[in-house]
């Protein structure tokens, strides 16, 4: 097979190259996501498998995974194995949002057996899907969390009154607490719900929509 590896660790790139070459594969390595994207442009020949890390230069955050998503958009049939120390939940969900054939996401710590790695590469090249159980667990946990479960009892009281359309001053009067305390609770609620900074009114509307959709039975 023709295998492309994107890995900024010289030792790991060399080790993987030697391993796969010894198995008879044709291996090309790249140390940055930019080099990878440039090499596999729209008119490039598609390799049998792309093996990529998540965190690569220049920022060492998620360049490798974003590059894989981009390349899958250019070459939908490109088999990709993400081999990483980390689970980048947002981009991992994006990667598996479409056709999952020929996709894999495996944590490096779990690849302790050479045969296991070779098997994963072969399965992905054949159109299979290989997902580390820890990756599944984290993606599902993120998918099912709403942020409401992190609210304190007092914050839930405040949120219920916000959902009724009450102003901060009206909430303060209803709960017999000071206006600064209400403002602090509202800020905490919006933060826990992961709502992006915006106008307070817009964030409050988004918070109310989530509350109405996911509130537990019995809460107003």
Automatic annotation (TrEMBL):
Residues 2-123 form the Response regulatory domain. PROSITE patterns: HTH_LUXR_2, RESPONSE_REGULATORY. GO terms for biological process: phosphorelay signal transduction system; regulation of DNA-templated transcription. The modification 4-aspartylphosphate is found at residue 53. It comes from Cellulomonas uda. GO terms for molecular function: DNA binding. This is DNA-binding response regulator. Keywords: DNA-binding, Phosphoprotein, Transcription, Transcription regulation. Gene3D superfamilies: 3.40.50.2300, Winged helix-like DNA-binding domain superfamily/Winged helix DNA-binding domain. It holds the Pfam family GerE. Residues 144-215 form the HTH luxR-type domain. InterPro entries: CheY-like_superfamily, Sig_transdc_resp-reg_C-effctor, Sig_transdc_resp-reg_receiver, Tscrpt_reg_LuxR_C, WalR-like, WH-like_DNA-bd_sf. The keyword Transcription regulation applies. SMART domains: HTH_LUXR, REC.
């Amino acid at each position: 097979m023709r295998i492309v590896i994107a890995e900024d660790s010289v030792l790991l790139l060399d080790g993987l190259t030697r391993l796969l070459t010894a198995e008879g594969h044709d291996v090309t390595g790249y140390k940055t996501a930019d080099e990878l994207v440039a090499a596999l442009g729209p008119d490039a020949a598609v390799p049998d498998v792309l093996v990529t890390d998540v965190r690569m230069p220049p920022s060492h955050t998620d360049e490798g995974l974003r590059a894989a998503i981009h390349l899958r958009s250019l070459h939908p049939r490109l088999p990709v194995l993400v081999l990483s120390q980390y689970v980048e939940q947002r981009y991992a969900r994006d990667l598996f949002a479409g056709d999952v054939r020929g996709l894999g996401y495996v944590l490096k710590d779990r690849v302790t057996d050479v045969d296991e790695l070779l098997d994963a590469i072969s399965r992905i090249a054949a159109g299979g899907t290989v997902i580390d159980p820890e990756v599944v667990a984290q993606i599902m946990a993120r998918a099912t969390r709403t942020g409401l479960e992190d609210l304190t009892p007092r914050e839930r009281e405040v949120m219920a009154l916000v959902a009724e359309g009450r102003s901060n001053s009206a909430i303060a009067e209803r709960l017999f607490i000071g206006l600064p305390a209400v403002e602090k609770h509202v800020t905490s609620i919006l933060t826990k719900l992961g709502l992006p900074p915006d106008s307070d009114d817009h964030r409050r509307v988004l918070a109310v929509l989530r509350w109405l959709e996911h509130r537990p039975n019995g809460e107003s």
